[in-house]
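LOG
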Amino acid sequence: MSKNGKWTFSENEEFFNYGEYFDTKKEAIAAGKEYFADDDYALYVGQVAECGLGVMVDVESIFEYINQNMCDEAGEAADDYLTYTAPEHDQELENELKDVITKWITRHGYQPTFFKVVNIEPVE
């Protein structure tokens, strides 16, 4: 079940790790006040936002790696291998590799289990 858009609480603006999530900000405030009732902590609420997968592909680095391997194998004859590729071909490869990596992450269940918290507000 996705927590995206849910509200949560904390005693600071950095770490929201109490593991309770609410449909409304009002519910999160009430739960936070109850949770910290006996403590003199500040109270903050924020909204959960899912992180993307972070899939980035640097085609130029991949080409450099391949070029180095080819130079190791074939010597100077391979010096310019994959050095002058067309930008549209680079973009095509980048998109295809991102798609493959994203499908692999999803197929094997490696999606992030963490999230970021946005719309953080102090509660008086």
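LOG (cont.) second protein
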Amino acid sequence: MTKHLTRTTALACILAALSTSAMAQDLTITFSGLAHQSGTLKLVAYDSPAGFIQHQAWRVAQQQVSNANPELTLRGVEPGQYSFMVYQDLNNDGRLNRNRFGMPLEPYGFSNNARPTGAPQFGQLAVRITQPNQQLEITMR
């Protein structure tokens, strides 16, 4: 009886793990409003407010800009709430260049196409990923 119960529990755990990974999906992010067709889009994604506050990214990705409609596909995205920030590294120096007042000199954008007046907050940028092969558009400015 105990042996049967142990096998059943193990099988249930394996099936649960497989069904969780089966819910993972692709998320395609497109970028509009690019003034330059050069450089690299650098994306940082957060999956929780705590990770956002502590600058612990859930995912980091980049894509060379070679045409007017670049896109990035993130694979294995579990349903949930995520916040995205992106900038276009025009000179490929690996950082968002700013002026002496701290304002960005290179194009940038946020999920929800948010326009925060100060430092962005997770909730302002948060989007819910619920559908398989969902798409998200971020407008650069």
